[in-house]
Specification:
- The structure is a homodimer.
- The first copy, chain A, is an alpha+beta fold.
- Chain A has four domains: 12-103, OB fold (Dihydrolipoamide Acetyltransferase, E2P) (Beta Barrel); 135-264 and 529-562, BirA Bifunctional Protein, domain 2 (2-Layer Sandwich), CATH 3.30.930.10; 271-275 and 423-524, 2-Layer Sandwich (BirA Bifunctional Protein, domain 2), CATH 3.30.930.10; 291-412, GAD-like domain (Gyrase A, domain 2), CATH 3.30.1360.
- Chain A has helices spanning 56-63, 120-125, 127-130, 134-156, 197-205, 243-262, 275-282, 299-302, 308-312, 329-340, 370-379, 395-412, 490-499, 504-518, 532-540, 570-576, and strands at 18-30, 34-41, 44-51, 70-79, 92-103, 160-161, 179-181, 189-191, 210-218, 230-239, 271-274, 296-297, 315-321, 350-354, 360-362, 386-393, 423-427, 432-435, 440-443, 470-475, 478-485, 525-531, 578-580.
- In chain A, a hairpin with a 4-residue loop joins strand 18 (432-435) and strand 19 (440-443).
- In chain A, helix 4 packs across helix 15.
- The longest helix of chain A has 23 residues, at 134-156.
- The first copy, chain A, is globular.
- Chains A and B meet through helix 3, helix 4, strand 6, strand 7 and strand 8 of A and helix 3, helix 4, strand 6, strand 7 and strand 8 of B.
- Strand 23 of chain A pairs antiparallel with strand 23 of chain B, so a sheet runs across the interface.
Chain lengths: 587, 587
Amino acid sequence: MYRTHTCGELTMKNVGQQVTLAGWIQRIRNLGGMTFIDLRDRYGITQLVFNMEKNSQLCEEARALGREYVIQVIGTVAERENKNPRLATGDIEILVETLKIINPSAIPPFTIEDETDGGEELRMKYRYLDLRRNPLKNNLLLRHRMAQEVRRYLDGQQFIEIETPVLMKSTPEGARDFVVPSRMNPGQFYALPQSPQTLKQILMVAGYDRYFQIVKCFRDEDLRADRQPEFTQIDCEMSFVDRDDILVTFEGLIKHLFKTIKGIDFTEPFQRMSYADAMAYFGSDKPDIRFDMKIVELTSKAKGKGFGIFDQAEYIGGINATGCADYSRKEIDALTEFVKRPQIGASGMVYVKYQSDGSIKSSIDKFYTADELRIWLEAAGAKPGDLLLILSGAREKTLKALGNLRLEMGDRLGLRKQDIYAPLWVIDFPLLEWDEEMQRYFAMHHPFTAPVDEDIPLFNTDPSKIRAKAYDMVINGVEVGGGSVRIHQKDLQAKMFEALGFTREEAEYQFGFLMNAFQYGAPPHAGIAFGFDRLVSLFAGLESIRDVIAFPKNNAGRDLMLDSPSYLTEAQLNELRIKVVTDEKNC
Amino acid sequence: MYRTHTCGELTMKNVGQQVTLAGWIQRIRNLGGMTFIDLRDRYGITQLVFNMEKNSQLCEEARALGREYVIQVIGTVAERENKNPRLATGDIEILVETLKIINPSAIPPFTIEDETDGGEELRMKYRYLDLRRNPLKNNLLLRHRMAQEVRRYLDGQQFIEIETPVLMKSTPEGARDFVVPSRMNPGQFYALPQSPQTLKQILMVAGYDRYFQIVKCFRDEDLRADRQPEFTQIDCEMSFVDRDDILVTFEGLIKHLFKTIKGIDFTEPFQRMSYADAMAYFGSDKPDIRFDMKIVELTSKAKGKGFGIFDQAEYIGGINATGCADYSRKEIDALTEFVKRPQIGASGMVYVKYQSDGSIKSSIDKFYTADELRIWLEAAGAKPGDLLLILSGAREKTLKALGNLRLEMGDRLGLRKQDIYAPLWVIDFPLLEWDEEMQRYFAMHHPFTAPVDEDIPLFNTDPSKIRAKAYDMVINGVEVGGGSVRIHQKDLQAKMFEALGFTREEAEYQFGFLMNAFQYGAPPHAGIAFGFDRLVSLFAGLESIRDVIAFPKNNAGRDLMLDSPSYLTEAQLNELRIKVVTDEKNC
């Protein structure tokens, strides 16, 4: 060992001890007679002292060091005159007797501080330096802690962690697979799993009634700001259970994490909200319920008074912004601009101010009397001082726009506090989604998702109305996990494939091995997968998942540190029996 | 829940309770008046009883069921008349009142018993049925338990589990990479990691001084009997440590596993044996030290007596087989055949029998007097009744052949007991290996392995004599892990690259990003990786790793259940901008 202690553990109890420390130089302060060095390692920072009077040569040596040098010192722990209460080691310092440079450092391209001056690209290229900064280190420590606690909880519930293959088989539906040419089977390819979905169902058929895995998954999608081509799931499946067993078990997991990691004790069951309610009241299938401000439908109340826009709208709805009646013209305009952004897509916004004196002022005074507007305010539960914001148009689109406006108002009013966590289950999702372009139904979750029992007759009448035994866990407006009860009955599966427009042959071709397995005694089963990167970033209070991943890729799917992907040699390509197509015409 | 209890938990304490069980039918015995069903789940087997007199309809239903049907029953726990002490639930049975078929099963293609009649191929194709068998289930449970204990131990030692990317960069040295074409970066490829070696060293530069990961690694090699294209490593790295710190820490890990998993308490430090001694005394760098039977060199004692074969040999050595002096001609011939097999490669074998009456009989009586042979026997520590087996030839090859003969004798004498575990460290490996064909040195471990300090001057005189700070952990003749102290000093690294015949440019091209990182304050570091599949199979008492992996591939790298790898569609290939080369001439 190059050290007797870490840089995070020495306190007043150690005063007088001779210790050996090793680490990186965070900062050097030359005060003439004295030189101070902050020595850093993973565990903390300890102040080193060099005294010009006592040992001028050593002090000169110390002054000649640079940031991020790796050094080893031997010295004696002493009480500090100016204690630093923000440091765990802030009561002591080390009077250095011996100094050894283990490795010098070039000048880092950005500062290794909590707030750095490095741009995104530079920090990704020098990820090993960025990872030295406290915020990133704390994220990775949190991720480690959470992974251990996930395992501790699930192991305690008799779940078995089983590794499934990374070299899988290409699946035809859904997002694009990453593929791997097989040298031993020329012309054939493995695919990297988008999730171990089929294999975990296979494991249920195999009798492993409680499976989990913290596992890498892969999707070759065009990357949005916060997607990664490889990401990590907490993947779980159970047999001989129905929906409620899953909800209780995995609510337990999330409660365990909140308790052990954040010290937050959720003693009540999580709220369960139907997809229909989530859309109607929050305009989203992942409602942020840290604040109320529910959407109120005003369609019947607002139509037929001669205001053309409303009269033509399929849907009219509003949200009540508490205490915002005094919003200025400028503020209202800003909100109007917000809802008119292409991502939100509203054509305009109507407001009704319920002023503190009880009077009403609105942008549609011409069309509605105060009494008529008062009915809306009442419906929205508005009180004097409140502001009612109203959108109209096609039902679904308007609800989503209202949902976004609600989140924007939540932000403006400081109602989305980072240290408040509001988890809930969203349930009863639609089983099928109609695709206008393809003129067919798609499975909203996946083709093995079970319908709600009482909705099964709807396969023959109105498949779009069938609710699925699917569930999402949502925390603070973020979908952290989701899953479903699976179909384990042959007949029901056939009905489902029929609804999806699959012939028996197509179903056989695409899901043959799973359907095959189901012939040999498939138990009832259900599962869930949590986005682990997302869950950690939520616990870390971050918007993005990038900084809870040690070595993330950028939006072009590149690892800037490794400079990957990269070109292969001709010899490598020949051995794999593949050719890169460079001629556009061949594509 | 479809059950109130599992099939493994009901005992006399539950007698009289009404319970609901669900599981698979292991066996049906129709005894006329009574029908018995063994109901199986992951946790055990419980006997169900159907009584013709009490409920003939239910009993008829039960008789009509088949093996591997999934059923649910409600019944009352009763004491059994004929108790089965081999079953945890053997004291009780369930008097069934209600029976529900959850799912029927086709007739399995092989029996789901501890000893099955299914061939290897069939069992891999129907892996979900094979995984129902106890031996495989116990392997996966063991694997789960071991993974959890590995994490518990390392977490307790302040190691952090950090996930490194699966989409990595192709590395030029060593085994072949699996590669992944990047759609977003046409013509470029990711590579799947053969190990996270460079990234874990990067993490040390980043200050994460105790890293581990249980991680999938990939090698596109032609598969020998017991290799898999994807395998799992316990990958570890530490900073500010030297060799002994690593040995102590990871000896601790293995001791923890033996204690918690097998109840075996290793209180003494593991033996450490130099590579030179391992080769000289055991003819192997992974000696099985469950038994002694060390190789004894006889070169100087046996040469110059006119026996041509010995006189011309570079090396002569033997092993003493205790109590085997009475081996018949046939037995000796069999051993001679064994050493002459191409894998062993000896041209013949000489024996000296030290008979119980003290007389000596050998295959070379013509050339040596009894007194001369007695000197050999003494050197080998032979006693009356023992048998000395002697091979000769080129030194290294003969030692390896003797090593194999030693293992063979160990097997024959029952000295390699499966429930005895004999771990040791092999240390002081050569740093470099000379490749005759390429006329250059290769790194025996990898190019960042540090030499033993006192051997550094040998870079200028005899590089092949340099010992590495490398170490392997060997248990019962199986290498379960290995690693090294890494070079963290620029000058030493340059010397190493020079010895390997790399120009500065080549080194930069191949290891640029790591060498770049090393400029910014690299700490001294060292690491190790354990083959997790191998370790589990050792604990399971298995020869092969295949049955400790849920979904292994066969020797052609195929997953027979998924029928993977498989062909892609033209559309997929076009999108990836690659073409499969089918014309032999283009290869």
